[in-house]
Amino acid sequence: DQQVKQNSPSLSVQEGRISILNCDYTNSMFDYFLWYKKYPAEGPTFLISISSIKDKNEDGRFTVFLNKSAKHLSLHIVPSQPGDSAVYFCAASENFGNEKLTFGTGTRLTIIP
Amino acid sequence: DVKVTQSSRYLVKRTGEKVFLECVQDMDHENMFWYRQDPGLGLRLIYFSYDVKMKEKGDIPEGYSVSREKKERFSLILESASTNQTSMYLCASGWLAKNIQYFGAGTRLSVL
């Protein structure tokens, strides 16, 4: 039972445009969410997170939006750059400070120059 | 910078062999984790540990065991490797009561 789902396995976006990656979850106990980025032959690296008490968190070109009623979060990257080409995983935990994360299946983002 | 080091990048083993995957972190993190990554399935948690000599089962512990004799080192053991354990294995570490985990580069294991 996949509690965190990323329904788009891949996404291609023109350089300079906005990339939007989506993530849905089913466990209503999840209240802290993270995005990780993974390049080939490297481990995932933390990108940005959001607590359920917020609906938006921004860090430079990256913004995460949370819609708790829809159990949906999204990662916006603007403007997209070639170095953003990677696999993106969303992850969730049942409370802040609970170190156990449940990961989604990943979305491969390709930025077209 | 946090460093999580996995001892091997690639391993090829035969069915039935006992396999050890080693992971070392240098940030004095309390927590350590083992995941496997498979296409279409994302990262799935195998085992984790909050402290030395302590372990907790993750979502897919069958066929695996772990050992944490020292704080900085967390080993994943395949007692009798099978072909369905061919995968990318990722180790991670993190501080107690903090959600962010730091990952190693991974070990790609092929069981023939």
Rg of chain B is 13 Å
Estimate percent helicity of chain B.
under 10%
Q: Quick one: biggest sheet of chain A? A: 6 strands, mixed
Rg calculated over all Cα atoms of chain A? 13 Å
What structural class do you assign from the helix and strand content of chain B? mainly beta
- How is the main sheet of chain B built? 7 strands, mixed
Number of strands of chain B: 11
Fraction in beta strands of chain B:
over 45%
Separate helix tally of chain A: 0
Task: Report low-confidence residues of chain A grouped into runs of 5 or more.
Answer: none
| Helical residues, percent of chain A | under 10%
| N-to-C series of helices and strands of chain B | EEEEEEEEEEE
The pair of chains with the biggest contact is: A-B, 27 and 28 residues
CA-based shape of chain A: globular
Concise synopsis of the structure shown:
Chain A is an all-beta fold.
Walk me through this protein's architecture.
The complex is a heterodimer of chains A (113) and B (112). Chain A is mostly beta strands and 113 residues long. Chain A has strands at 4-5, 10-14, 19-25, 32-38, 45-51, 56-59, 62-67, 72-77, 86-93, 102-103, 107-112. Chain B is mainly beta. Chain B is built from no helices and 11 strands. In chain B, strands 2, 4, 5, 6, 9, 10 and 11 form a 7-stranded mixed beta sheet that branches. Chain B has a 4-stranded antiparallel beta sheet with strand order 1-3-8-7, with no helix packed on it. In chain B, strand 9 (87-94) and strand 10 form a beta hairpin. Chain B is globular and about 40 Å long. At the A-B interface, strand 4, strand 5, strand 9 and strand 10 of A face strand 5, strand 9 and strand 10 of B.
